[in-house]
Design brief:
The complex is a heterodimer of chains A (611) and B (225). Chain A has 611 residues and is an alpha/beta fold. Chain A has 19 helices and 18 strands. Among the domains of chain A are: 225 residues, 3-Layer(aba) Sandwich (Rossmann fold), CATH 3.40.50.280; 175 residues, Transcription Regulator spoIIAA (2-Layer Sandwich). The radius of gyration of chain A is 24 Å and the shape is globular. In chain B, helix 3 packs across helix 4. The chains are: A alpha/beta (611), B alpha+beta (225).
């Protein structure tokens, strides 16, 4: 009998979030598998179901006849209320069994503000949130994903982390579990063996010693653990598993389409961008592989849209032949092509022509900063001319809405740089009106989305302080007062959200008790503005005697031991320091295709990134 | 447009049961778009700015209800035997949806006037005899007024001329009945209104309600086909 009576589904909003049965979802007989794996995404269905990594690992695990991987998402408030009132457990979508019945419970860590969601989901499943309170092998809680590059803030709650890419290490961890279960190992015995798998981090086997000032003094590896732990990568993307099916949801989700993963990593080296550093080295898929993936997905899902996915799609080496192939068959099969993540500097006319054939919504570009000096500091190697030329091409191609992404609070930033954001937008507006052949009767709309900069681990800005909230609010005012056109929309995120993100991103294990306190006081789904309770978070820091400014606003010296120094993410600290120094000198670094700058990441590949 | 558009109209009858009842009408439409696309049958696509597979559903079904009398119309650009259509579509439909027959549309969906529903519910803690008596009395009144919410606001209507209840029974904790309700573009009576009317009268609500649409008719009480 499933844990969940079906009739509760008629009491909630969007019951299709919880009812399972979607096309391509996998149902097995639980008696016939040896390991049941609950793949948990600590956010709502619509967000989690959009995530490519989950689709890959779900299919990969289910390819093993001995494993049944099911999906679990955070319930929305109405469903949570019903579950708690009726004393029903959080359940997996495929079997509707309690998450507490599962052998392994895996969380994907996509953003820091989802951490309270992990605690809430464990608690709803009736599972103790702290790793030390779970003594059995059953309900082993594991985690991976980008935020596991600094997992220390949630090290109290998770038994085992898998930093880096999961396609190889996750089956190794699951296979070890099969043996453990068969032979009746204790949890401790399993974790001791798991710590021997390259790229597996077991927090209970590493002690952290702190200095009196609260910084990390050193790490002590116990028993079978060794340091540093090197993240795992997939050397050959053409050989690695890629799903030929996606689960096709009934309800509308954030990214409701087939996704084609072109490459991992990014050649650009923008100094603020964590993805640009933690996914190194850059590896591309051959376009023949992609054509095959594309056909498989379109045939098995019936999706009407196919999107090319990567950090910087226009840097993909075989983009033009790939587009030629896709544009050959997708219109016939009534599939639209979506090509996000295009860079402003290599958006060629022939590329635009190809793309405009299939897609005509707004265009988005990310200059990131408003002046050339600032763009040089962050190594966003685009020039004003390139931004204008790209917008010109876009306008000539019939686009009248442009969205520009910027950041404030970057290292060395002055008010001139902040005003430069609005001035850049204004020049884009002027460009439109100065065009002799501008579309008649149409206005232009330039939207500037301005985020507050959050320094992240493993980037050259990991040493930098975040701007205080007061300073960020002041800079938002500077932009507002520089704005004189109604053709420009300015919007920005809460500085409070970015502040908490900064604390959690560079936090250490002392943050764990704060996360637990905040969750116990009702914080959950923090990435949703309507649920974010900043004051409760600040109360929780005070109550636990932890100063958030220590994590968000402090400058770190180059020789400070960082909480994430337990990991080797392949990019050397020497390179990160050199990049930080170059940022302060406003000196740029060429992209990886122009010249190898020796970040060190190619050691994982065993050779040069580009021939 | 002088071009003759060559297409073949097809009406597919299907059932929607089990947890598929939690899929809303809008989501069903999207699921069919995608399922039909996977079947690789040569469908006709609209020719507007955003071409899409042409689909039209005869009578939307409310979220939470099952049905064994659903239908959807589409167009083919090359002929295919009806059994083959049913077979190919069944191979691609999600769990809970099953194609049962296909054929040339014989009636216009605008002519739909009635639908039958099998309804089951419980009334915990109530004397079954009392519940049955309440049902009879509620719907034997001269008028049975409820508030119907429409797009243009709320209005009071008398259900009496638009509903016919039969086969009310009690067995092993569950009440069952058959309701024939006005349906279609002119006036559509949702089974929910029947419960609403009952609640207004008896001051308690049926619980664990299960509704299944079993047939759809025109004004001559011919089955929609």
């Amino acid at each position: 009998m499933p844990a969940i009576p079906e009739n509760i589904l008629s009491l909630v909003q969007k019951p299709a979030r919880y009812c399972g049965g979607e096309l391509n979802s996998v149902v097995k007989k639980k008696e016939e598998v040896s390991v049941r794996f609950a793949f948990c995404f600590p956010d709502l269905y619509e967000v989690g179901m959009s995530h490519l990594g989950m689709k890959i690992l779900y299919s990969l695990l289910n390819n093993d006849p001995e494993v049944w991987c099911e999906r679990v998402f955070a319930p929305d408030m109405d469903m949570e209320k019903i579950l708690r009132e009726r004393n029903l457990p959080l359940f997996a979508l495929e079997s509707r069994d309690s998450v507490g019945d599962f052998d392994m419970i895996g969380f994907t860590l996509q953003y820091e503000l989802s951490y309270t969601g992990i605690l809430n989901m464990l608690d709803l499943a009736g599972i103790p949130v702290r790793a030390e309170d779970r003594t059995e092998l059953k309900n082993l809680v594991v985690a991976g994903g980008p935020c596991s590059c600094n997992p220390e803030p949630i090290a109290d709650f998770i038994d085992l982390f898998m930093p880096g890419e999961g396609e190889e290490v996750l089956p190794e961890v699951v296979n070890l579990y099969k043996t453990a279960k068969k032979e009746g190992w204790s949890k401790k015995q399993y974790l001791m063996e798991a710590a021997k798998i390259p790229g597996v981090y077991v927090p209970s086997l590493i002690d952290v010693i702190y200095n009196e000032d609260g910084t990390v003094k050193e790490f002590v590896a116990k028993e079978t653990a060794t340091l540093p732990i090197t993240k795992r990568i997939i050397k050959d993307l053409d050989g690695v598993f890629y799903p030929d099916k996606f689960v096709v949801p009934f309800i509308d989700i954030v990214h409701d389409r087939s996704q084609l993963e072109l490459m991992r990593g990014c050649i650009r080296g923008c100094r603020f961008c964590q993805a640009g550093f933690i996914y190194r080295p850059v590896r591309e898929k051959r376009f023949e592989t992609l054509c095959k993936d594309a056909h498989n997905l379109c045939d098995s899902t019936g999706y009407e849209e196919l999107s090319l996915t990567s950090l910087s799609t226009s840097d993909y080496g075989e983009l033009e032949p790939l587009l030629d192939d896709l544009l050959e068959w997708t219109p016939k099969e009534h599939v639209n092509l979506a090509v996000p993540s295009l860079r402003v500097d290599n958006f060629s006319e022939s590329l635009l022509k190809k793309i405009s054939k299939v897609r005509k919504s707004g265009l988005t570009f990310a200059p990131e900063a408003g002046t050339q000096r600032m763009r040089d500091v962050i190594n966003k190697n685009v020039t004003e001319e390139e931004i204008m030329a790209t917008c010109q091409t876009a306008f000539e191609g019939g686009y009248t809405a442009v969205k520009l992404y910027f950041m404030i609070g970057l290292p060395t930033e002055t008010d001139d740089d902040v005003r430069g954001i609005v001035e850049t937008a204004q020049r884009v507006v002027n460009l439109f009106y100065n065009m002799p052949n501008k579309p008649k009767g149409k206005g232009v709309q330039v939207t500037c989305s301005v985020a507050s900069f959050v320094p992240k681990p493993f980037t050259p800005f990991q040493f930098e302080p975040q701007n205080s909230r007061e300073e960020l609010h002041r800079k938002q005012e500077v932009m507002r007062s520089a704005l004189h056109s109604r053709k420009i929309n300015l919007d920005w995120h809460d500085a409070e959200t970015s502040y908490l993100e900064a604390v959690l991103a560079r936090g250490d294990r002392k943050i764990g008790k704060v996360i637990e306190a905040a969750w116990r006081k009702g914080c959950n789904l923090d990435s949703w503005d309507e649920h974010f309770k900043f004051d409760v978070w600040m109360d929780s820091f005070a109550e636990c005697g932890v100063d958030p400014e220590f994590y968000a606003l402090r400058t770190r010296s180059y020789d400070e031991v960082m909480p994430w120094d337990i990991f080797d993410y392949a990019v050397t600290k020497k390179f990160i320091i050199k990049e930080n120094q170059k940022a302060h000198e406003s000196v740029t670094t060429p992209n990886c295709k122009l010249k190898c700058s020796g970040c060190g990441a190619n050691c994982l590949k065993g050779g040069a990134c580009f021939e | 447009m002088n071009d003759m558009i060559d297409f073949i109209d097809v009406r597919l009858f299907y059932t929607k049961t089990g947890s598929a009842k939690y899929i809303s009408h809008l989501d069903v439409m999207r699921a069919f778009q995608r399922a039909l696309k996977r079947s690789k049958i040569d469908f006709w696509y609209t020719e507007g700015f955003h071409p899409h597979l042409y689909l039209t559903f005869a009578l939307p079904l409310s979220l939470g209800y099952e049905s064994v009398a659903e239908s959807v119309d589409f167009r083919l650009i090359s002929p295919m035997p009806y059994e083959e259509i049913v077979r190919r579509i069944n191979a691609v439909l999600p769990v809970g949806f099953k194609a049962i027959a296909a054929g040339k549309p014989k009636m216009d969906a605008k002519k739909i006037r009635f639908a039958d529903y099998d309804i089951a519910f419980s009334a915990d803690g109530k004397d079954p005899e009392q519940v049955l008596a309440d049902w009879y009395r509620c719907f034997e009144n001269e008028t049975v007024t409820v508030i119907k919410k429409t797009k243009s606001g709320e209005k009071e209507i008398d259900l009496k001329p638009h509903i016919k209840l039969s086969k009310l029974e009690y067995k092993e904790g569950r009440f069952t009945l058959r309701a024939r309700l006005a349906a279609g573009v002119e006036l559509n009576i949702n089974p929910e209104l029947v419960f609403e009317a009952f609640k207004n009268y008896a001051e308690y609500r049926p619980e664990d309600v299960c509704v299944r649409r079993t047939a759809v008719y025109n004004e001559k009480m011919e089955k929609f086909r």
